[in-house]
Amino acid sequence: MSLKTVLILLGLALATIFALVCVLLTRERSPRTCQHLPPEQEDVEDNQSLVFADLTAEEMSQVVRYLQGHLGVPLVEASRAKPSDNCIASVDVQVPAKAEVLRFLDGGGARPPREALAVLYFGNQPEPNITEYVVGPLPAPAYHRDVTVQRDGGKVPYHRRPVTGREYTDINALIQTELKKAPRFLTACCESDGTNLVTLTTAPRGFKSGDRVTWFVLFHNVAGTGYYLSPVGLEVLVDHGDLQISRWQLRQVFYNGRYFASAGDLEQEFVAGVLEVVRLKQPRADAVLGSMKPRSPPGSPGPLQFEPQGPRYRVRNNRVTFQGWSIAFGMNPNTGPRLFDIRYRGERIVYELSLQEALALYGSNCPGGMSTRYLDGSFGIGRFAYELVQGLDCPYTATYVDRHYLAESDTPKTNQKSLCIFEHDSALPLRRHFSDSQSFYYGGLRKNTLVIRTISTLINYDYIWDFMFHGNGAVEVRVHATGYISSSFFHGQGTDYGNRVGPHTLGTMHLHHIHYKVDLDVDGQLNSLETQDMEYEFVKDPWSAQNTIERPYLRRERLEKEDEAAFPLNAPMPRYLSFVSPNPNKWEHPRSYRIQIISFAGKHLPISSSMERSISWGRYQLAVTRRKEEEPTSTSVYNQNDPWTPTVTFADFINNETITNEDLVAWITVGFLHVPHAEDIPNTVTVGNGVGFFLRPYNYFNEDPSVDSPDSVYFSSEQDVGACGANPLACLSSATTCAPRLPPFHFGGFLNL
C-alpha cells in the first residue's frame, strides 16, 4: 500500500471521528422532549362531583326544546325578542339542596335528580313578568315547576329584567335618530355625523321602582383601542320603559356642563352662537389615548415555567385534584366562578365557595358618571369570561377548560379555554430555616400552589379571579382589577371627582367592592365562631416586685348571635376569627379554620340612600349567618334595575339567630378605592390592585400538614449536598435535561362575540 493511500485513509478516519464527535456534542446540547408521568390517583370517585357540574351544551338545548313544547305560549328567540315578546332569557344548572347532596356524597344515598333553572321574560302577557322554572330531570326533561316565589320572595316585576343586547341595539338606533337633529353641532364638536360615536350605558336606570331611564355617555370610537378614554362631552337620557319601542323617548341631553331638553334644542343654541363648544378632532389610531399597541420591538423571551414530567395535578370532568386537594369547579353565567366540595386529605373544608357580586360605584360632575353603580352580576360575570391567552393570562402549559352558557339565545354558546388550572411556583419558600447554631442544617419547602383562574371582561374592566390551594391546607381567594378606567369629559370642577388624564379626559374616582359566599364545614357541618385578639395587662414583675411589666395576653370569645358576627366595613375587627368544630385536635384545642381578610375597601353607600338596601351586603366586611336553603345568594340580578325595591336584601339575613353549633356561612366583602391617575393610561395595572382573603388551618391539624410533602428539602453539614439521594434539589440538573413540547399558539376568543 502506497504512502499516499495510507494518508488518504488516515484523513478519512479522522474526518469520520470528527463528524461523530460533532453529532454526539450536538445531541448533548439538544434537550430531549420531556416525558410526562401519570398524576397521582385520588380516592374520591370522579363522577361524584358531577352533582355540581355545569350544564352541558346538549342539556341546555334539551331544556330549550322542552320549554318550547310545554309552556303553551309563543316564544321568540331572545336575541330577536322585543320587550313585548316572550323569550327564554337564560338556562343554568339548578344545584340540588345541600342536604340531598350530602346524603349522596357522604351517606350512600341516591344521586339527586339533575335539574336546570330557566329564566323567562314574559312580555306578551296581560301582566308582564319574569318567571323562573326548575326543569328536570335531565337528560330527558319531563316536568317544570314555577319557583319564582320560592326563590325571590314573590313575583318579579318585568321592569327588573336586565337589559338585553337587542334592547341596547334599539336604544342605539333611537340615539342615532335623535343625533341627526344636531348635525352642525356634531360636526363642530366632534368631527362627526354621529355614526363614529359609541355609547356606554350607566346603571341603575332612574330614581324609583318602575323606572327604566338610562344615561348613555358618548365617546369617539377608534378601532383597535379603548374608546372609554375618549369622551366627547355629550350624554343623553333615554326612557326605554315602554313595551312598545316606538314610544321610547330621549328625555334630556347633557353637553359640557349644561342640560338641554332635546338634541334639537342643543342644535338651536349652537346655531345661535350661545353654546360654548370644545372642538375635538377625531382621534388617530396611532396617537389615541388608550392604545395598547406595543411601542417597542419584541425582546428576548422571559422565563418559562414548565413541568419536566407533566402536570402534577389531575383534571377529570369538573374536578381537579392535587397533593391532597380535591375541588369541584364551575361557572355561573351571572355571578361567575363557583367551587364546591373542597376537600383536603379527604376531609371537606368548604362546601361552597362562590363569587356573589362585583360593585363599581362612581363619582363625577357629569350625569352618567355620577349615577353609575354597576352591579356586574346583572351583566354576566361568568358569561363574559372569554378565552384566556396562553402564556400571558395563564402559564402557556396550563390546562384550559371550555365553559358553556345559554343567555339571550336559544342556542348554547361556548367560551373556549375560559378557565385555566395550573401549578404555580411562587419563587418563595412556604417555610424554611437555616440553622447556624448547635447543629448546622437547612430545611425548607417551595411554595407551590394549585391555581384555578378565570378572567371576566365587564365593559371596560377586566377582573382576574384566582382561587389558590396551598400545601399547608390553606385556601387563598384573590381578585385583581385591570382593563380601562371609565372616564368623564373634563369640565368645571372635575378634579373634585378624580384626576385629569388626557386633554379632555377625567379619570373618575370609583370603588370596587366584591362579595363572596363561603360555606365552611370545618370537621363537620356544625360549627361555632370564635374570636381571638391581644390585650396588655400590667403586672408586678414576679422576680423584681418593685417593677412592673406589660404582658400581652390572649382574649378569646365565642360569638353567640348573628348580630355579634356582623362586622361593619372598615371598622376594626378581631385579628383572629375562626370557624371552630366541637372536636379538639391532639392538643385539646378546637379544630378550626381562620378567616383572614386583605382589603382596602372604600366607604359603603350611606344607609340613607334609597338604593342602599340592594347592596346592603357591602355594609359588612364579614357577616356570619346560619345557612339556609332559602338564602342561597346575597343579591339578585334583578337588583340592578330596581335597587329601590330589591329582590334580595342581604341585611335581612342577619336577624340575631344563634350561631353556636350550627351550619354557618361566612359572607365576605373585599375591595379598594381607585382614584385614576396618569399611570392608569392606557390601562390599569394589577400591581397594588389586588384584594382577597385566606382560609387558614388553625389547630385543625396536629402539626403543619406540609411536612408530608414530597417536595420537602433537608440537608445537613455532614451530608454531601450535591448527592441526588440526599437532596432533591441536586436532582434537578438531570431531571430537567428536557424541553417542554409547547403546542402552537392559538386564540379563537374573537369568534364568539
Automatic annotation (TrEMBL):
<feature type="region of interest" description="Disordered">
    <location>
        <begin position="289"/>
        <end position="310"/>
    </location>
</feature>
<keyword id="KW-0186">Copper</keyword>
<dbReference type="InterPro" id="IPR016182">
    <property type="entry name" value="Cu_amine_oxidase_N-reg"/>
</dbReference>
<protein>
    <recommendedName>
        <fullName>Amine oxidase</fullName>
        <ecNumber>1.4.3.-</ecNumber>
    </recommendedName>
</protein>
<dbReference type="InterPro" id="IPR049947">
    <property type="entry name" value="Cu_Am_Ox_Cu-bd"/>
</dbReference>
<dbReference type="InterPro" id="IPR036460">
    <property type="entry name" value="Cu_amine_oxidase_C_sf"/>
</dbReference>
<keyword id="KW-0479">Metal-binding</keyword>
<dbReference type="InterPro" id="IPR000269">
    <property type="entry name" value="Cu_amine_oxidase"/>
</dbReference>
<dbReference type="InterPro" id="IPR015802">
    <property type="entry name" value="Cu_amine_oxidase_N3"/>
</dbReference>
<keyword id="KW-0801">TPQ</keyword>
<dbReference type="Pfam" id="PF02727">
    <property type="entry name" value="Cu_amine_oxidN2"/>
</dbReference>
<dbReference type="InterPro" id="IPR015800">
    <property type="entry name" value="Cu_amine_oxidase_N2"/>
</dbReference>
<dbReference type="GO" id="GO:0005507">
    <property type="term" value="F:copper ion binding"/>
</dbReference>
<feature type="domain" description="Copper amine oxidase N2-terminal">
    <location>
        <begin position="75"/>
        <end position="143"/>
    </location>
</feature>
<dbReference type="Pfam" id="PF02728">
    <property type="entry name" value="Cu_amine_oxidN3"/>
</dbReference>
<keyword id="KW-0560">Oxidoreductase</keyword>
<feature type="domain" description="Copper amine oxidase catalytic">
    <location>
        <begin position="305"/>
        <end position="706"/>
    </location>
</feature>
<dbReference type="InterPro" id="IPR049948">
    <property type="entry name" value="Cu_Am_ox_TPQ-bd"/>
</dbReference>
<feature type="active site" description="Schiff-base intermediate with substrate; via topaquinone">
    <location>
        <position position="461"/>
    </location>
</feature>
<dbReference type="GO" id="GO:0005886">
    <property type="term" value="C:plasma membrane"/>
</dbReference>
<dbReference type="GO" id="GO:0009308">
    <property type="term" value="P:amine metabolic process"/>
</dbReference>
<feature type="modified residue" description="2',4',5'-topaquinone">
    <location>
        <position position="461"/>
    </location>
</feature>
<dbReference type="InterPro" id="IPR015798">
    <property type="entry name" value="Cu_amine_oxidase_C"/>
</dbReference>
<feature type="active site" description="Proton acceptor">
    <location>
        <position position="376"/>
    </location>
</feature>
<feature type="domain" description="Copper amine oxidase N3-terminal">
    <location>
        <begin position="161"/>
        <end position="258"/>
    </location>
</feature>
<comment type="similarity">
    <text>Belongs to the copper/topaquinone oxidase family.</text>
</comment>
<dbReference type="GO" id="GO:0008131">
    <property type="term" value="F:primary methylamine oxidase activity"/>
</dbReference>
<dbReference type="Pfam" id="PF01179">
    <property type="entry name" value="Cu_amine_oxid"/>
</dbReference>
<dbReference type="GO" id="GO:0048038">
    <property type="term" value="F:quinone binding"/>
</dbReference>
